Structures are given as C-alpha cells and as structure tokens.
Amino acid sequence: MGQLQKFLLSLLSGREDQNIRFADLLKLLEYYKFNVRIKGSHHICTRADVVEIINLQPAGGMAKPYQVKQVRELVVKYKLATKEFDDE
C-alpha cells in the first residue's frame, strides 16, 4: 500500500482531521486531477466535473480541519476514492 493510499484511508476515517498536513491534502487533490490556482495563501482547487470549488489555506503547515472535512465530502460524493492508484 502506497503513501497516497494510506493518506486517503486516514482522510476517509475522519479521525485525524487536526493532524493532516496541508501538502498531503494538496497532493491528493492534484492526484485526482484538480487544477490548483494560487492567490496569496489561498489554493483554489477546481475540476471540470466537480461543481464545488475548494479553497484551501495552510495553517502552519497543517490543513484546517474544516477544509479536510470538505475534501473528504467531495471524495465521497464524487466517488473519487474508487479510482485505482498507480504505483507511486
């Protein structure tokens, strides 16, 4: 099991929202082909087939818990977790 897969399982469990690194969350969104635009400290993530826009901001290297929850809800709603992971 690769690091990205382990991270996804941790994200989906919802038990560690306060301990998710911002870089890991961003890496997952990039893996799922989200376009990331940076404006100041805001990382605006969009994808053509996803209606919602995710606006992420780091908090000392960590992701904000409410933003982790937003990403988890998108992964579940759009069934992104069913996509197979390539060898990393």
Spatial gap, N to C terminus: 10 Å
What order do the strands of the largest sheet run in, or round the barrel if closed?
A: 1-2-3
Q: What is the global morphology?
A: globular
How many helices? 3
Proportion in helices = 25-40%
**Count of separate structural domains:** 1
Succession of helices and strands: HHEEEEEH
Low-confidence stretches: none
Q: How many whole angstroms does the radius of gyration measure?
A: 12 Å
Mean pLDDT, nearest integer?
92
Number-wise, the strands total 5
Summing up helix and strand content along with how strands pair, one would put the structural category as alpha+beta
Q: Classify the beta-strand content into a percent band.
A: 25-35%
Q: What kind of sheet is the major sheet?
A: 3 strands, antiparallel
Describe the structure.
The chain has 88 residues and is of the alpha+beta class. The protein has one domain (3-82). The protein is built from 3 helices and 5 strands; from the N terminus they run ααβββββα. The strands form 2 sheets. Strands 1-2-3 form a 3-stranded antiparallel beta sheet, covered by helices on one side. The radius of gyration is 12 Å and the shape is globular. The relative contact order is 0.21. The model has no long low-confidence stretch (mean pLDDT 92).
